[in-house]
Amino acid sequence: MTGAGTGIGRAIALRLASEGARVAVTDVNPDWAKSTSVEVEKNGGNAIAAKLDVTSSREVSSVAEDLWNRLGHIDFLVNNAGVSTMNRLVDLTEEDWDFNMDVNAKGVFLVTVAMVRKMIQRDYGADRPKIVNIASMAGKIPGVFLPHYTASKFAVVGFTKAVALELAPLKINVNCVCPGYVQTSMQERELVWEAELRNMTPQQVKDGYVAQVPLGRLATAEDVATAVAFLLSHDADYMTGQAINVTGGQVMF
């Protein structure tokens, strides 16, 4: 899985390992990837770590080949690597746009292509290889000060559905998860950014987030990991092309 060094990715890695999966933990920061893999093994799981920049087609191809050689086969792919920046539309730069689109959208494309090329060469028997992409509720409803991020996450949702349709005859399930406001270091940065743009305090912004959630709290990374674990399980064998909300009711379609 990608972007597994911190936050949601780390929680997913720990959850999958706890259910018996051998997890390939990749991250653009090799120290973070190693840290998660060490934590997995301390908890009794099995993990290997690798540095991966999902925006580099050469690196993606190389790491995909290496992981398949080391693991023998890969049953599941979780595309979690993601970034964000925030600003008013008139102040957004081309660099902002490219950064978000390259990691959030292009990265999902590159890693999926590399892994599917391997998956279609293997006989999985009665099992179904599965892919889960981490999108966002911003892939369904727009985010203020986030037009570039929103565009990248709409792309992930659309890509998921198109790939699910194409790969269904090959018995490969492809779904995505759309988290809402999740308590991570990434969100802590966003609270500061939005507070500055709105002339508020980060706590006021956070309180505003909570007020938008019918269940009355922000999501945890573990909430998202639970949904991913379900989509990778046999319980979700008849689900493909879905964009599952983990938003506490904030998004209901």
Task: Give an overview in words.
The chain is of the alpha/beta class and 253 residues long. Helix content is 49%, strand content 13%. It contains eight helices and six strands, in the order αβαβαβαβαβαααβ. The protein has helices at residues 7-18, 30-42, 57-71, 94-119, 147-167, 185-198, 202-211, 221-232, and strands at residues 22-27, 46-51, 76-79, 130-134, 173-179, 243-246. The protein has a four-stranded parallel sheet, sandwiched between helices. The chain has a two-stranded parallel sheet with strand order 1-2. Helix 1 (7-18) packs across helix 8 (221-232) and helix 4 packs parallel to helix 5 (147-167).
Number of helices: 8
Give the N-terminus to C-terminus distance in angstroms: 27 Å
Find the structural class using helix and strand composition: alpha/beta
CATH superfamily: NAD(P)-binding Rossmann-like Domain
The CATH architecture designation is: 3-Layer(aba) Sandwich
Rg is 18 Å
Shape: globular
Would you tell me the overall average pLDDT? 97
**Total strand count, please?**
6
CATH topology: Rossmann fold
Q: What share of residues are in beta strands?
A: 5-15%
Give start-end ranges of low-pLDDT stretches. Answer: none
Supply database-style keywords.
253 residues, alpha/beta, Rossmann fold, 4-stranded parallel sheet, two-stranded parallel ribbon, 8 helices, 6 strands, 49% helix, 13% strand, globular
Please give the structural blueprint:
Elements (H helix, E strand, L loop, with lengths): L6 H12 L3 E6 L2 H13 L3 E6 L5 H15 L4 E4 L14 H26 L10 E5 L12 H21 L5 E7 L5 H14 L3 H10 L9 H12 L10 E4 L7
Parallel strand pairs: 1-2, 3-4, 4-5, 5-6
